[in-house]
Amino acid sequence: MSGFYVLAVPEFSALIDAAMKSGGCTVHRKRGHYQFVEFENEIEILRCDTRMNEAVWFGCLTGGLDGKIAHFDRDRLKLVATNEPILGVGAR
Amino acid sequence: MTKPLELHPRLHGVDHTARPTWKLRETVHFYRDILGLPLVHCISAKGWGREKENHADFLHFFFDSGNESTIAFFYYIGTQQPPELVVPKGYMAMANHTAWRVESEVELLEWQRRLESHGVNVSQFIQHEIIESIYFRDPNWYPLEITRSLREVEEPDMVDAGATIDAAMELEDSGRWTNIEQLWRSKVKFVQASQANEQAPA
Known about the structure:
The complex is a heterodimer.
Chain A: E1 2-7, H1 10-22, E2 25-27, E3 34-39, E4 42-46, H2 54-57, E5 65-66, E6 68-72, E7 76-80
Antiparallel strand pairs in A: 1-3, 1-5, 2-3, 4-7, 6-7
Chain B: E1 16-20, H1 24-34, E2 39-45, E3 58-64, E4 70-76, H2 91-94, E5 98-102, H3 105-117, E6 126-128, E7 131-137, E8 143-149, H4 155-174, H5 180-199
Parallel strand pairs in B: 1-4, 5-8
Antiparallel strand pairs in B: 2-3, 3-4, 6-7, 7-8
Helix pairs in contact in B: 4-5
């Protein structure tokens, strides 16, 4: 199950709205202090849909990621499913 | 072994922080006249009596930075600034900074305008999740910040901070930690543990 966790605080709530707008994901109900946004193979989120400034945007996955970052710049985030080990050969 | 919380000694905020300066006049002008912080105390002493160390005679002076805190300086008379105490260029040295609190956006704007009116190079407002800040430098190149809280820190923040740091320490121990993606992936199990903990019956 691929996805990312979003801490239930105001700064990050727009990430869920942006993920829903991008489609292809399921937003699970809150457990503990987090919501899980599940995607199947990939998901692409645009910063303009999050209303986040860059300081928050570049920390937007801080809730935890079950997947891999395929692209992350100031405008666009693309996540894909992965089976690669966290400290694998591909570690940058 | 960690003691129960009620047995811990408590801290009650910042009394003072201190750093050395080799620019006495410029430092006093900046903190007293530009920032407007009252000069409230000054020690002048013949070393600390530490003759074996060849300790310089010195001034140790304090500016009131509000809420019963001060920002303090040492001026070592007749000495030259050692190269290792020159503030390095670049972002890493900015980690060592002082951040003062204000209570509103209006106050933050007033500080920005005041600094600009005295020719201080000051940043725009920058929001970092729970705070909003302006950044600038003093004449010694020490980084300074004035910040306001955007909201209270609450339980989710503390739970999340614990999960982040637990994951980070585990990665540090691995000796192979190179990027934030590894942290975000490693953190999942700690987040899930916190969720299970939250949902466990009392």
